[in-house]
Amino acid sequence: MQGYKEVVDTSVYVKFKLKPRQKAGNISLGNNAYILSWTTTPWTLPGNVALAVGKRITYTVVKIVDTGEIFIVADNKRDVLNLDYKVVGRVKGDKLIRLRYEPLFSIKPITAPKTAKITYRVYPAEFVTTEEGTGVVHTAVMYGEDDYELGKRLGLPQYHTVDENGNFTSDVPELRGLFVKAGKTEKKIFEYLKKQGNLFRTDPYKHEYPFCWRCDTPVLYYARDSWFIGMSTLRKKLITANKGIHWIPAHTKEGGSANGCVMLKI
What we know:
The chain is α+β, with helices and mostly antiparallel strands. Helix content is 17%, strand content 26%. Helix 4 (235-243) packs antiparallel against helix 5. Keywords: Aminoacyl-tRNA synthetase, ATP-binding, Ligase, Nucleotide-binding, Protein biosynthesis. One of its GO terms (molecular function) is isoleucine-tRNA ligase activity.
């Protein structure tokens, strides 16, 4: 694919700890339950605001034999656990909707009381599949097209944890000023997740990733403000103004510029 390169990135399985005393359908989840999610872009995790599941996907609730932890993963993705476990039960994704979980990072504008009722919850999304990962998609509204559309539909907060230079902002003090795609940054993210008890596993992952054709650096999916001008209202003024301009070479006056003004349809 043009503009893409085959690279090996480090993917990560993240344990999102559920708030205590909740249920998945009729299954009590207790105080030590997690939803397991997978991502190839660890740098987006500080911007997490929600988790997405498939309403019609079957999920399995398992109990890890050694630790007693409860995990929720898609039924056909249980092999990612690679641990001894007992099946507690199975539910469709629609039984997981609105479950609440603890944030990975404390980003004050996202954790503010006015957004607390809708952030850090599980929501349904049509784009969720079980082809890869765990059947649970971590959602960072500002760093992916599907994420953004889901966030817009739900009214989730649109807040950047990364600046336009690709560095973490001061809202993420653990990573402030670090370039998000640097290897040392990923290492710090994984160390932080491990310290917080949210790191399940990291794996190398070969995939296609976009790179800038000019400077050959990795591209970030990044939502930013844009301006759109309704040019149809300015068309007549542009044509009139064009007549008073001395163009060099002269043929451009009645060529590309004038025709461009006439053809404006926006």
